[in-house]
Design brief:
elongated; alpha/beta; 441 residues
Length: 441
């Protein structure tokens, strides 16, 4: 018997134990069904036409092979198709029904799965070197429901032994590329059927080491200053606090609460994770340099006089700059939520880029960083003793040092982003724009 199975519409799976459901199937009903189908006017030469794409229906079809042979005593051709040219997109699988039973039917089923499945060879990478041994995984490359993340889970599931070159690697830790090491499969939501992968193709996986999701990293970073400032506020002598010290607490809470809400509702991340080591460094920046250091200065080690009226100016500018920073983030997020491809094509929202305008983007590529630095500058001025007659006596406060350090780091990021914008958009990108500081840099 020859069976034509359309690979394009087959959904791969391996619940082999489903074949044991022989005893649960009403054989009389199936025999009646076969008898009705076999006499249908649309069928010629005992050809049965099945339209299905689930693994249970595939198994049921194999059972029907067996029962059909028992009842009609003839070989037959089973065809699954969604297109008229089914043979061009199908494989041929043969079964001899001489002495078939449940055991041999299961063997045929496993062989069928192997024939229907495509194969990818996964090799491990160390530095720029690709190790010789590889892991073979089976899947259906035409399955539109299978994503890059599913592929990574298959790699993790099937690489079980530590002595193999490809040991168990969690999907979050996998840096998956073609064997040219240039084409990166980093969009976990992308269906694999549009990647133009071929059966037998080699993919290379690199272990990135311990990783944390970006959302987890940001929440961990931003909650730190809120906790530290609040604790230090209540550890100090609250009865002596003036307006500046009380306001500083709410400025910090407002700033980082905004960051947390942006992480939850605004930001679209271009990558899924950050190395754990880097995340710990970032947490040190926020928890210690900002939360502990600035909070200790304000509530434990410094005394404040009455708040002068001019300090309401940096307080007001802080609120304005925070709002502008928020609008920049919303602008960038909205650009990624608008598909750039035509309708019907796959759109990777976290990989889209467009030229931003408004809220400072007409002057600089990273207006969000520009307003961020101005917010911290306003905070530093507000919390410092900058009344003119005390200026020469005041030591450089920690908030100023934190602002300068943050400016240096954001300037590096802004220049890198500025270069990517110019490379991607070329002459379309406004030439008058600077990286971060208008008209300067």
């Amino acid at each position: 018997m020859q069976c034509y199975f359309n690979k394009k519409n087959f959904n791969y799976g391996l619940p082999i134990n489903i074949i044991k459901r022989f005893s649960q199937i009403n054989i009389q009903k199936i025999i009646f069904l076969i008898d009705q189908i076999s006499h249908h006017s649309l069928l010629q030469s005992h050809i049965l036409l099945f339209m299905y794409n689930t693994i249970f229906q595939t198994t049921l079809c194999f059972i029907l092979f067996y029962l059909y042979h028992l009842t009609i005593k003839q070989d037959l051709v089973i065809i699954t198709q969604n297109e008229m040219d089914f043979k061009a997109n199908s494989i041929i699988y043969s079964i001899q029904f001489n002495h078939i039973d449940e055991s041999s039917l299961q063997i045929h089923y496993i062989n069928f799965i192997n024939q229907m499945s495509d194969k990818l060879i996964i090799k491990k990478r160390r530095g720029q070197n690709i190790l010789p041994d590889g892991l073979e995984i089976q899947l259906n490359l035409n399955d539109s429901s299978l994503t890059v993340h599913d592929l990574k889970k298959l790699i993790q599931k099937q690489s079980t032994f530590s002595y193999q070159n490809v040991a168990r690697i969690e999907p979050l830790r996998q840096w998956l590329t073609y064997d040219d090491l240039k084409t990166v499969l980093d969009d976990n939501k992308k269906p694999i059927n549009i990647l133009n992968l071929k059966s037998g193709q080699i993919l290379v996986v690199k272990d990135l080491g311990p990783q944390l999701q970006w959302v987890v990293v940001f929440y961990s970073e931003y909650i730190g200053p809120i906790i530290m400032f609040t604790l230090l506020y209540f550890l100090g002598k609250r009865e002596n606090y003036n307006f500046t010290q009380k306001s500083a607490l709410w400025m910090i809470i407002g700033h980082y609460l905004k960051r947390i809400l942006e992480t939850r509702f605004v930001h679209i991340f271009s990558r899924d994770s950050m190395p754990t080591r880097r995340a710990l460094i970032n947490c040190f920046h926020y928890w210690i340099l900002c939360g502990l250091a600035i909070g200790s200065e304000l509530y434990l080690f410094r005394s404040f006089e009455q708040t002068p009226l001019w300090k309401f100016v940096p307080l007001a500018t802080f609120v304005v700059f925070e709002f502008l920073n928020l609008m920049c983030h919303i602008t960038l997020s909205n650009l990624r939520k608008k598909p750039q491809q035509s309708q019907g094509e796959y759109v990777a929202l976290n990989k889209q880029r467009a030229i931003p305008f408004g809220y400072g983007f007409d002057l600089v590529s990273s207006a969000n960083y520009f307003w961020e630095v101005l917010s911290w500058a306003s905070f530093s001025i507000f919390t410092g003793s900058y009344a003119c007659k005390y200026f020469y006596k005041t030591k450089i406060q920690i908030a100023i040092g934190f602002t300068i350090f943050s400016f240096g780091q954001m300037l590096i990021w802004a220049q890198d982003k500025h270069r990517r914008y110019k490379q991607e958009f070329g002459d379309k990108y406004p030439k008058q724009r600077k990286a971060m500081v208008p008209f300067i840099i």
